[in-house]
Structure to design on (269 residues):
């Protein structure tokens, strides 16, 4: 149902998105407005300090700081953009059923399906969320949709929630929206699942990731390797607290091991 609706949407033409990508690269917001795509409104909102022209920008900018004002604006507006922002606010407030109700009214919008999938995942219906996202993946790929990277990130999140780490990493690696946020999220996933090799491949791209590599090595009890790497990158002093914390853990661990060994000896006696 969702795929058919997306394919019937005239906005999903390659030419439109080729123009969109071009205007995005050139940061030509005036031309982007003429496309009248929902993606254009989102992108302009994300850059609201550089451009204007949409009445909902002020409300959008208040979503995190003055939520009640933003909520009131979007509740009283009927356009697609406002509905999607309202859905986003509902997700933030944990009103997942309300978000789902809003999204179901806009089955032609990828963003609505995206929010619908997120809502389902947060309700614990992760398999259903994955199904929704996979339904639209082919359409987005065929139409050169600029937000295919966002879909990959959300698929990665869902697979991670399902403890399917290989699939999660696979989709994270595919994303074409490798922002600093996404990279940090990737490292968080790698941290929890001990994908140290992937972290090392990221090191050259973002200098800050060196700190994450050190933390992962420490978590993996590779204390000496972490210390040597930190010193080689002149990060040891900056991360001294992390090393101290691990040293304290090591001392406590050795203490526990010693107590257990003594207990065994006494038991044998």
């Amino acid at each position: 149902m969702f795929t058919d609706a997306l394919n019937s949407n005239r906005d999903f033409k390659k030419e439109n998105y080729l123009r969109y990508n071009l205007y995005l690269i050139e940061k030509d917001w005036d031309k982007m407005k003429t496309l009248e795509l929902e993606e254009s409104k989102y992108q302009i909102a994300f850059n609201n300090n550089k451009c204007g022209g949409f009445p909902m920008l002020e409300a959008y900018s208040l979503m995190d700081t003055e939520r009640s004002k933003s909520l009131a604006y979007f509740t009283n507006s009927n356009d697609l953009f406002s509905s999607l922002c309202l859905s986003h606010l509902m997700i933030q407030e944990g009103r997942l059923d309300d978000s789902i109700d809003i999204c179901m009214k806009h089955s032609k919008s990828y963003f609505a399906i995206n929010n619908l999938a997120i809502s389902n995942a947060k309700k614990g219906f992760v398999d259903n969320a994955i199904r929704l996202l996979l339904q639209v993946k082919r359409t987005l790929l065929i139409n050169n949709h600029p937000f295919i990277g966002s879909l990959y990130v959300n698929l990665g999140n869902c697979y991670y929630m399902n403890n399917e780490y290989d699939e999660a990493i696979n989709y994270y690696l595919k994303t074409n929206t490798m922002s600093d946020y996404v990279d940090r999220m990737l490292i968080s996933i790698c941290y929890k699942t001990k994908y140290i090799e992937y972290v090392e491949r990221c090191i050259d791209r973002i200098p800050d990731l060196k700190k994450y590599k050190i933390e992962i090595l420490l978590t993996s009890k590779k204390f000496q390797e972490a210390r040597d790497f930190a010193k080689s990158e002149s990060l040891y002093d900056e991360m001294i607290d992390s090393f101290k914390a691990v040293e304290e853990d090591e001392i406590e661990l050795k203490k526990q091991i010693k107590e257990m060994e003594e207990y065994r000896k006494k038991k044998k006696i």
Observations:
- The first helix runs from residue 2 to 7.
- Confidence is low (pLDDT under 50) at residues 1-12, 46-58, 176-185.
- Residues 22-206 form a domain with the Serine Threonine Protein Phosphatase 5, Tetratricopeptide repeat fold (CATH 1.25.40.10).
- The radius of gyration is 24 Å.
